[in-house]
Amino acid sequence: MNKTGKVYLIGAGPGDPGLLTLKGRDCLAACDVVVYDRLADPRILSWVNPEAERIYVGKASSNHVMKQEDISKLLVKLAAEGKTVARLKGGDSFVFGRGGEEALLLKENNLPFEFVPGITSAISVPEYAGIPVTHRKVAASFAVITGHEDPSREKSGINWKGLATGVDTLVFLMGVENLKNIAAKLIENGRPADTPAALIRWGTHPEQRTLVTTLGNAYEDVVRTGMKPPAIFIVGEVVKLRDSLSWFETKPLFGKTFVVTRARAQASVLTEKLEMEGARVMEVPAIRITDPDDFAPLDAAQKNLASYDWVIFTSANGVDLFFDRLLQNGKDARAFANCKIAAIGSATADMLNAYGLTADLIPASYKAEDLVDTLLPQLHKGSKVLLARAKEARNVLPDSLKAAGADVDVVAVYQTVSDCENKEELVDALKNKAVDCITFTSSSTVTNLLKALDSEKELLKDVTLAAIGPITAKTMEKNGLKPTVCAETYTIDGLVEALNKFYR
């Protein structure tokens, strides 16, 4: 029996990936094929089923990869083949999205479809600029209008007289290129030239820019400032509320570009926290986490785990990868029954909690020296200690414990290797003075980024450099770099807090 295909017409929202609906995300994860337009943020595609076919049919003004009628026919073809299709569009499929046209052709061919609404930029972009489209004391109505009508129409379908005087707030989508005509038509039909207005470019993104003007001055101000599409044009008294309600563009890191050098698997945590503070983030992983050269020492330690008095973890990565191997060896958290556990850092302790274990000891300061000071009073001569860590870690901890008479086994749970992704993008951004700050979360991110940049490391001299803690900062200094920001609490949250404080 042939499988029946189906098309989900999904609105991707205005750009911020977090504004994609849960249903939209679930449909992307289940599709066989995704047919997508030019998206304001390509990270939305990260939720697409990894095995799904991807077909780009993006459209920009006067530059169409595929004509609309051909896109509609493609959807029919794919659904007729029995495939589950995600048709992904920016904004909402029904707000100038041509979703209705695509669905009608599917209907004509007796093929099932479903709409998954998206958050339209007509409301969300002004909201990110602190401009409500309605307000009880200011505006009781709003209208959403296309900024460029179908050029094949002989007569405008826009009721300019009704719009100009009958609606409180007007939101024109894709209106920059036709702004002069839009403003002239509204004024000609009775809207006062001094009506507050605003243009919002790249709304909901860290690159968002808002130009506050008036209806009469809008065109000249756009020419003067060089504002380009994509932008929306909003007209009405509600624009005055921006002074009180602006929230996105007032975030402490808004408008700043940060480079995250953590390994790809870890980068998203710091990226998300920086973006929550308004930053634009460029991920340039300087390291990659890989398996140790030989699992034999780790396997032997896990086999004899009950013989250790203490097991020490120095990172969340170490915990996660230790347990990954432990489970492969047929064991679980019960293997720690006879051990006490020490963890450097709250993130390491949190990862232990995720596996059902609570650290017996966490030093007040998250570095090896403080762990030594805290742990030594609890050891006796001959105490057996297992130190599970990265291959490249410093020897301060094992050397100090051995000097105190402990029997220490050091096993590599993982190793970090140089892997500078997006190096060319970083170099271009540095040359164009488009980077505000580079963050370093370990000594290895410092040394490996410098190794990757080689002769071009001089480009770092005019950039703010941030370290997660004093050990990383010392590595920077040894390599001729000056750390401008150093976290007081040696965690990702501590680093973000230090950056907020610095930029405030």
TrEMBL record:
Enzyme's top EC category: transferase
EC number annotated for this UniProt entry: 2.1.1.107
Keyword Methyltransferase assigned: yes
GO biological process, one term: methylation
Highest taxon of source: Bacteria
Annotated Tetrapyrrole biosynthesis uroporphyrinogen III synthase domain residues: 269-497
Keywords from the named record: Methyltransferase, Porphyrin biosynthesis, S-adenosyl-L-methionine, Transferase
Domain Tetrapyrrole methylase residue range list: 6-217
Example GO molecular function: uroporphyrin-III C-methyltransferase activity
SUPFAM superfamilies, A to Z: HemD-like, Tetrapyrrole methylase
NCBIfam families found in the cross-reference section: cobA_cysG_Cterm, PRK06136.1
Protein name, entry field: uroporphyrinogen-III C-methyltransferase
Gene source species: Succiniclasticum ruminis DSM 9236
